[in-house]
Amino acid sequence: MGIEVKRIPENAAQSMVKGGNHQGYIAEMSALVPYASPFLKKCEFIVILSSITDMGNIGSLVRSAYALGVDAMVISGIKEPNFESIIRTSSGAALDLPFVIIHNIHDVMHELKQSGFTLYGAMAEGVSVREMSFTSKRALILGSEGEGLSGRIQKGIDHGISIPMAHDFDSLNVGVAGAILMERMR
Question: What fold does the segment set 30-185 form as a domain?
Answer without folding.
Answer: Alpha/beta knot (3.40.1280)
